[in-house]
Specification:
Blueprint (H helix, E strand, L loop, with lengths): L1 H18 L1 E7 L41 H15 L4 E10 L4 H9 L1 H6 L19 H21 L6 E4 L3 H11 L13 E2 L18 H7 L4 E2 L18 H18 L4 E6 L1 H10 L12 E12 L13 E2 L24 E2 L13
Parallel strand pairs: 2-6, 3-4, 3-6, 4-5
Antiparallel strand pairs: 1-7, 2-7, 8-9
Bound molecules: 2-acetamido-2-deoxy-beta-D-glucopyranose (10 copies).
Length: 362
């Protein structure tokens, strides 16, 4: 008994030592066009550029006859990991933004200021719902383009197939991942068995499109998907009153990356997420800003180095912001703190959600 206690004390001491370590992420540039400052994100098309993989030679090149650029890249990435010190690891994250959702269509329809200051706080209008928005037909088509891209790249370019798949719990990402990968012919070791991760969801604002369904509903809609451990039945974050700041979002983006990098040995990892969340992941990874259009995909070659010491920031608070409580007056165009949106009365911070939290459909 005494021996077991001693072992427990040693275990506790080891845990303390292990805790004083953090992972530093950097983007390895020079392999993909997206991390090159001269590449214009607005006009860049991953489907016509081999996902942005640059034609070049690598240190690992040898007997490269008839190997595709992706096959040679895979050897190069293998070499990087082989030669890396034990506290350094390289992975290729392939991050896809969901196809167009009903919330995206509504933002265009109402214009961004009016969307942000009022309509985004509703579940939908008389024709469409955008709470936990589903894909529009155009969004489905964008995911089908990704599906075609993967099918042809696997066959013709021998692009490495993801070894693991993660997705945001929001419906538009669950559907995008399914359309993209669900019917590809894949070896069983790389089968499409996605894991739903809470922290890959979009930045949590007051918008109802950032609220997720309960786990029961998610399971009913995508029964083959796996939930990460401890995924809660109810949405633990969205409240319709306070929103996550960028600083808070970056901290949770780092948390989810730490989780993936600490528990997943895969080198090629697919993530299906959102514009705001991928932007946050890019910040944490030290990648330049690169905005993705709906349905677009970006690869990032990541170098993860475990260092001793404590990471700097661990918490940041959420904030409230002013909103209209009735449809805005859209005829006035003077820019204001509301981004050009003018409320019929003075704008106030909402203290209760504009909707009844319960049903997602109006
Ligand atoms: C990671 O390390 C690099 C190089 O030492 C440093 O420039 C960067 O700020 C670090 N990133 C973070 C998030 O600590
Ligand atoms: C990127 O392309 C867009 C669309 O053609 C253009 O408006 C913008 O000026 C370009 N940006 C740069 C930095 O060239
Ligand atoms: C890269 O190489 C491929 C195959 O040789 C070629 O088809 C493609 O046009 C090249 N791309 C660029 C940007 O040079
Ligand atoms: C490369 O492929 C071509 C056409 O399939 C073939 O004729 C040639 O022998 C191959 N070269 C090598 C080194 O395998
Ligand atoms: C609801 O919003 C959609 C855009 O998402 C728009 O096409 C439609 O006309 C709107 N319906 C009403 C009744 O305003
Ligand atoms: C897979 O899905 C795509 C897009 O939905 C479709 O065009 C294609 O025919 C499907 N392929 C197979 C093999 O089912
Ligand atoms: C997911 O994709 C598979 C394969 O294409 C399809 O059979 C299934 O119906 C899809 N599920 C949903 C919920 O879209
Ligand atoms: C889960 O969500 C569905 C759809 O919104 C709802 O009908 C159901 O009552 C919810 N289940 C639980 C246990 O809350
Ligand atoms: C799940 O929750 C339990 C109990 O709080 C905790 O011990 C465990 O570490 C959690 N697992 C994960 C993967 O977060
Ligand atoms: C890390 O933080 C812990 C607890 O806050 C502290 O005891 C420890 O000394 C710190 N380690 C380093 C290397 O700063």
């Amino acid at each position: 008994m005494r021996f077991i206690l001693a072992a427990a004390v040693i275990q506790a001491a080891l845990t303390t030592v292990a805790d004083a370590a953090y992972i530093n992420y950097t983007t390895v540039t020079g392999y993909f066009q997206q991390d090159d400052p001269i590449t214009n994100a607005t006009t860049f098309d991953y489907t016509t550029t081999n996902l942005g993989l640059i034609n070049r030679t690598y240190s690992a090149d040898c007997n490269t006859n008839n190997l595709t650029q992706w096959q040679r890249f895979a050897r190069e990435l293998f070499r990087l990991n082989l030669e890396a010190p034990t506290n350094v690891e390289y992975k290729l994250l392939i991050m896809g933004r969901h196809g167009e959702g009903y919330h995206n269509a509504a933002e265009s329809f109402y214009t961004t200021p009016a969307w942000n200051c009022y309509y985004s706080l509703l579940n939908g209008n008389a024709t469409n719902s955008w709470a936990d928005a589903e894909l529009t037909p155009a969004g489905t088509k964008q995911a089908q383009i990704a599906n075609n891209f993967w099918r042809s790249s696997i066959t013709n370019q021998k692009i490495p197939i993801p070894q693991s798949y993660y997705t945001s719990p929001l419906q538009r990402c669950l559907a995008t991942a399914n359309i993209t990968f669900g019917n590809l012919t894949l070896p069983s070791s790389k089968a499409f068995k996605p894991t739903i991760k809470e922290l890959l969801r979009e930045g949590i604002s007051l918008h109802t499109c950032d609220r997720r369904h309960n786990a029961t509903y998610i399971h009913k809609t995508f029964p083959s998907y796996t939930f990460e451990a401890n995924f809660s039945e109810a949405d633990p974050f969205w409240n319709g009153v306070t929103g996550e700041t960028s600083a808070a979002q970056d901290i949770r983006s780092k948390t989810v990356l730490d989780d993936i990098f600490s528990h997943d040995d895969s080198t090629y990892i697919s993530i299906t997420s959102h514009s705001g969340e991928i932007a946050s992941l890019l910040r944490v990874l030290g990648h330049r800003t690169f905005s993705l259009s709906t349905g677009a995909v970006i690869p990032v070659l990541v170098r993860a180095e475990t260092r001793s010491g404590n990471a700097t920031s661990t918490s940041a608070s959420w904030s409230v912001s002013p909103h209209c409580t009735a449809p805005p007056v859209t005829s006035i165009s003077t820019a204001t703190t509301m981004g050009g949106c003018v409320c019929p009365n003075s704008a106030t911070a909402v203290t209760t959600p504009l909707i009844t939290i319960g049903p997602f459909r109006k």
